[in-house]
Design goal:
The protein is an alpha/beta fold. The protein is 41% helix and 16% strand.
Length: 295
Amino acid sequence: MNTDQEISPTVRYRNVNSSGMKIFYREAGDRDAPTLLLMHGFPTSSHMFRDLIPLLADRYHLVAPDLPGFGFSEALDRAQFKYTFDHLTQVIDRFTEAVGLRRYALYVFDYGAPIGFRLALAHPERVTAIISQNGNAYEEGLSDGWNPIQKYWKEPTEANRAALRDFLKPETTRVQYVHGVSDETLVAPESYTLDSALLARPGNDDIQLDLFLDYANNVALYPKFQEYFRTRRPPLLAVWGNTDPFFLPAGAKAFTRDNPDAEVHFYDTGHFALETHVREIADAIRDFLGRKLMN
């Protein structure tokens, strides 16, 4: 027996009730260690953190929930639950309390960013640091890929809503994973296949279209997010795929305008940077949190 062989940390798959909804989450690491709350984005789930969690669980307590309507969390009917980013944040806020998270660093990606930043605005004393992986808070970070969605914001007609259904097709989901990736063999096919299967559940398409429309309210909050960065100066690390078709490198660089101490790392990859650069990003997180949380 090779006693030098690495033993993978145990990851547990749990459910908890939050605001009357079943929320699924992944958890690993010592609960007495500093906590890192991992917030996924569209069109994925906590599955996107499957390779990152084991690389950090020896030092940190990792908690990765699935948002309502995503992954293995409950997806209530739209008649029972209004799918807005404010409402998702309320559920996740109560989730953190239900699982006993008093203080935590945030890892935010895509949709996870406006939710995480809302949590930080509501409870700045709880947030020990922020890691933004292609999690935007600046208008200059929005690419032309947002144009069809922005058209829907300006003119919320049925025609403009219907035009966005292409974003929910399996081939579009796959493109989100492989666009800008130099070696597509690094991208695990179960990632976009699982996302597509869950997007195909009855009624989920309209949940996602509702969130496309409500994303305009995230952009409206950008000035408040920026004021938080400027006044509270949380330790902030941006780890960014520089060929992301939706969130441009300018969005990562802009963090330093409001928080000059923010650290920005770019990687030659796309939107789902963890698929191709998980070890590099894990190393950056360990170094960053090791310096910022241990002082």
